[in-house]
Amino acid sequence: GHLARLLGKPEAPGDGLLAVGGVAYGGTKGWADLPAAGVEAQRCRDLFRAGHARRPAQLLEKEEATPQAVRKAMAGRRWLHLAKHGYFDPPTRTSRILAGSGERRY
What we know:
Structural class: alpha/beta
Number of strands: 3
Helix content: 25-40%
C-alpha cells in the first residue's frame, strides 16, 4: 500500500514474506553490523511460517543481503521486514530515491 503509493505505482498482488537482517555492512559508510538484526529477521520469518504455512517466506542475511538481491527478492512479495539501520528523510526525497531518481548521501 504505502510504498506503492510513494512510488506512484499500483499495488502488486504479491504473496509471502521477505525478511532481511544481519546484513554484513563490514563497516562501510560508517554502518556497524547489527548482530541481533539477523535473529530478528529469522524470528519474523519463523513466525510468518507458523501462521502461514502455505505462503512463501524468504530470508536474506549476511553477505547474501545485497541491495540487488533484496530488490530482486522483493518482486512478488506482499510483506517485507527489514531489520537494519535506518534514518529519516523527507517523504519527497525518499520517493525519489526509491524511484531511482535521487542520490543518497551519507
